[in-house]
Design brief:
Blueprint: E1 6-9, E2 12-23, E3 26-33, H1 45-50, E4 59-65, E5 68-74, E6 79-81
Antiparallel strand pairs: 1-2, 2-3, 2-6, 4-5
Length: 89
């Protein structure tokens, strides 16, 4: 089994990894929440804008969760895993 580092926020812990996102105007190092059941990866609009991605030029998609429904935009952008610590038990 692969174990990932966890980020603690308050009483909750989240599996996160550092990644680098690339766009037409550069790249940015950030952290990504690992969600093994997800079919897509989500990033905030400010990260997309920082690397030169025109957020609203993407394909519109409605995203739903327990908090409601929001409009998002899909893009195919390259990313790379910056580091990945693997701990075996």
């Amino acid at each position: 089994m692969i174990r990932f580092p966890y980020l603690r926020i308050g009483n909750d812990s989240y599996p996160v990894i550092p990644i680098r996102l690339y766009g037409p105007d550069g790249n940015v190092l950030t952290r990504a929440l690992l969600d093994s059941g997800a079919r897509i990866s989500l990033f905030q609009a400010d990260l997309a804008q920082a690397i030169g991605v025109d957020v609203e030029s993407g394909e519109p998609i409605y995203l739903e969760g327990i908090g409601g429904r929001i409009l998002g935009y899909t893009h195919k952008e390259p990313f790379s895993v910056f580091t990945l610590a693997i701990v075996r038990f």
